[in-house]
Amino acid sequence: MSGSITVAAVQAAPLGITGLPVFGRQDTIAEFASDVLRVRSAVTGPALIVYPEIHLFGTGDADTLAAAAEPLDGPLIAALGEVARAADAWLVPGSVCERGENGEFFNTAPVFAPDGRLMASYRKIFPWRPFEKYTPGDSFVTVDIPDVGRLGLSICYDAWFPEVSRHLAWMGADMIVNVVKTTTEDRSQELVLARANSIVN
């Protein structure tokens, strides 16, 4: 890495906009924006603010999550870009439920620049079967943070497959952000895997 950036990994309960139409999400987005600005106020200089997997979508079942999915050119992503711009920070708002061009249902981690632009998006390659009904992604994704370094992206269960971290390292990732929503008893194993992936790469 050529520079430095403060990473604020926010541990928070899901906000819960699951199943609401776009117009019903304004309070949730406002609440999220307020929290991002709260975090940003505690950090000076360049910042990367990261939230948990599916943070904005509550705890609904697969059908409810699928009903709330939007394409990446929809109003949710536009609103999240405005949150990043207002905070003047790099932002990974957890992951979002994405509706693909052909109706697919993806678990996708977007990355926004401080000017609000969507700089990258990563679709989870390894949904946790049989519980997660997402369509698997098919591409490894990195994004360059100017004057800092290259960020690799993964989501939760992806970390259990060492090939994901290894491939991101081969792509030049200086750091990997793995957004997680683990409600099961395997969190301690995930922490071991995170350390192991860091060591071997």
User: If helices are DSSP runs of H or I spanning 4 or more residues, what is the number of helices?
Assistant: 5
* Total number of distinct structural domains: 1
DSSP, total strands: 9
Give the CATH topology: Nitrilase/N-carbamoyl-D-aminoacid amidohydrolase
Which structural category do the helix and sheet elements fall into? alpha/beta
Distance from first to last alpha carbon: 14 Å
What gyration radius follows from the Cα positions, in whole Å? Answer: 16 Å
Helices and strands in order:
Elements: E1 6-9, H1 26-41, E2 47-50, H2 62-68, H3 75-87, E3 90-92, E4 96-99, E5 105-112, E6 118-123, E7 142-145, E8 149-155, H4 162-170, E9 175-179, H5 187-200
Parallel strand pairs: 1-2, 2-3, 8-9
Antiparallel strand pairs: 4-5, 5-6, 7-8
Helix pairs in contact: 1-3
